[in-house]
């Protein structure tokens, strides 16, 4: 019997686990959180349920069906609070997976070792936020953090809030904020109308199979109207102001390349800012496993969601940012094939069709809302680009100029950018871009996504003997 390890219990991971069980495999499902659902189905704890939680989430019935099927299945071992901190390969195939289980900042976590026959990586993505003057002030949140507080704790991040950045995700963030009682002053999409039309209109009939996305958009639009939230194109937050926390922001119009247009600035009083410029895939484990990446830096997979490493599969946002529908389709295919099935199986016909549809949807999102090259013109000399190590844009540029280095590794060591506690998860790609722009391209193949230790672990935990994996943490 095949033993399948699924890492990540968001939409892709849940779908993969259920599909693998349908094929008769034993499944171990790991997630760092204490609840299943990932970032998309983040919800209140069981001790504080919402009266009608279905109304607060898209696809809630799908989540409940997946969760109930897995929690009620003796062949699926669910381990919550589980951090995979290292992967070892065995002859270019799945080997030992090192895991610690317990509170992320707690002591006395259990260290366990797993030896699966196949691994499905469904590690998802995190917010990408471009820096701007004042983005390090208290009261500046990523869109994902603000939504997590709203959905998981019903906490409002502020009374007067602006939502800014790029992409469809800005709309659900604004909706979540409004639902917690925040007054959303406006939603500011950096891309202008021509860019949105170029991304969404070509071969528009191919969007018809994804018509339910139009219904979601209509729902968000109705919410914007009900709460009187303006939606502005071609504008961005170019600075946040305050002493101990955010007190105001400066909004400016942008050109097509995202460079601020002089003379369009206006100042707005707020006490919170939520910013999102898309998502960055969480690639640490995929890189540790040796998986090949695409030029866009997603995990390369074939039609069966196989990576370049035998026995290692990938699904969801680490293969491309396409939303929950694509994640569910890819997860089902990955779990089925990881458990010994074939990607051409009749039972996967619907998943293959949905995957084709939402691959196209993902490409349109990037074409319409992707980051444009002119954004560094928002920065000033003293703008922090690495908050952990307090590296400013000016000091980064001076180090590049003074060292004449083309090596990202050397420049990270000389500037400390990306070497802080987040290990470049927040600033890594920003630093890479800024250095590459200044010197015309990096001269090595080092990536800030490469983190051999995928999660922090104490030396005492490393020295402790591994314990047998629990049957479940239910």
Radius of gyration: 22 Å
Strand order of the largest sheet: 3-2-1-7-18
Q: Could you say how many structural domains there are in total?
A: 3
Number of helices: 13
- How would you name the CATH homologous superfamily of the largest domain? FAD/NAD(P)-binding domain
Distance between the termini: 24 Å
**CATH architecture descriptor name of the largest domain:** 3-Layer(bba) Sandwich
The 3D shape can be described as globular
Give the low-pLDDT segments: none
Percentage of residues in strands: 15-25%
- The average pLDDT score comes to 88
Instruction: Find the structural class using helix and strand composition.
Output: alpha/beta
Helix content: 25-40%
- The tally of strands reads 20
- CATH topology-level fold name of the largest domain: FAD/NAD(P)-binding domain
Question: What does the main sheet amount to?
Answer: 5 strands, parallel
Q: What is the CATH level 1 assignment of the largest domain? A: Alpha Beta
Summarize the structure.
With 474 residues, the protein is an alpha/beta fold. It contains 13 helices and 20 strands.
Structure description:
Helix content is 31%, strand content 20%. The two termini are 24 Å apart. The mean pLDDT is 88. The chain is globular. The protein contains 13 helices and 20 strands. It folds into 3 domains: 3-126 and 280-366, FAD/NAD(P)-binding domain (3-Layer(bba) Sandwich); 140-277, FAD/NAD(P)-binding domain; 375-439, no CATH class. The strands form 6 sheets. The protein has a 5-stranded parallel β-sheet, covered by helices on one side. It is of the alpha/beta class and 474 residues long. A hairpin with an 8-residue loop joins strand 5 and strand 6.
């Amino acid at each position: 019997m095949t033993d399948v390890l699924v890492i990540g219990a968001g939409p892709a991971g849940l779908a993969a686990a259920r599909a693998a069980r349908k094929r008769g495999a034993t499944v171990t499902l790991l997630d760092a959180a204490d609840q299943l659902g990932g970032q998309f189905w983040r919800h209140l704890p069981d001790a504080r349920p919402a009266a009608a939680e279905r109304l607060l989430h898209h696809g809630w019935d799908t989540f409940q069906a997946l969760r109930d099927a897995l929690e009620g299945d003796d062949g699926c071992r669910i381990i919550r609070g589980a951090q995979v901190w290292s992967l070892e390969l065995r002859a270019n195939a799945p080997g030992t997976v090192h895991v610690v289980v317990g509170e992320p900042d707690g002591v006395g976590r259990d260290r366990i070792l797993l030896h699966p026959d196949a691994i499905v990586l469904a590690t998802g993505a995190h917010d990408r936020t471009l820096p701007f003057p004042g983005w390090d002030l208290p009261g500046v949140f990523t869109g994902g953090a603000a939504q997590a507080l709203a959905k998981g704790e019903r906490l409002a991040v502020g009374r007067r809030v602006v939502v800014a950045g790029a992409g469809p995700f800005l709309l659900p963030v604004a909706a979540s904020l409004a639902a917690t009682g925040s007054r959303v002053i406006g939603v500011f999409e950096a891309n202008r109308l021509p860019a949105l039309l170029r991304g969404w209109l070509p071969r528009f009939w191919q969007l018809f199979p994804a018509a339910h996305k139009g219904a979601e958009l209509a729902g968000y639009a109705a919410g914007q109207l009900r709460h009187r939230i303006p939606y502005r194109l071609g504008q961005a937050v170019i600075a946040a102001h305050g002493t101990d926390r955010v007190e105001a922001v400066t909004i400016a119009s942008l050109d097509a390349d995202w460079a601020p247009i002089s003379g369009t600035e206006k100042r707005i009083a707020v006490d919170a800012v939520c910013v999102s410029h898309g998502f960055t895939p969480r690639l640490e484990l995929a890189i540790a496993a040796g998986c090949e990446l695409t030029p866009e830096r997603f995990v390369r997979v074939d039609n069966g969601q196989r990576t370049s490493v035998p026995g290692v599969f990938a699904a969801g946002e680490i293969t491309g940012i396409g939303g929950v529908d694509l994640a569910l389709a890819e997860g089902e295919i990955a779990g089925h094939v990881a458990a010994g099935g074939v990607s051409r199986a009749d039972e996967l016909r619907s998943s293959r069709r949905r995957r084709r549809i939402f691959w196209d949807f993902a490409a349109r999102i990037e074409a319409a809302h992707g980051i444009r090259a002119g954004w560094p013109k928002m920065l000033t000399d003293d703008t922090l680009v690495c908050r952990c190590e307090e590296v400013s844009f000016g000091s980064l540029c001076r180090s590049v100029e003074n060292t004449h280095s083309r090596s990202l590794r050397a420049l990270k060591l000389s500037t400390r950018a990306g070497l802080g506690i987040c290990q470049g998860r927040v600033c890594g790609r920003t630093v890479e871009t800024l250095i590459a722009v200044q010197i015309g391209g990096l001269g090595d193949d080092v990536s800030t996504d490469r983190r051999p230790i995928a999660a922090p672990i104490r030396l005492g935990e490393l020295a402790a003997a591994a314990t047998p994996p629990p049957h479940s943490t239910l």
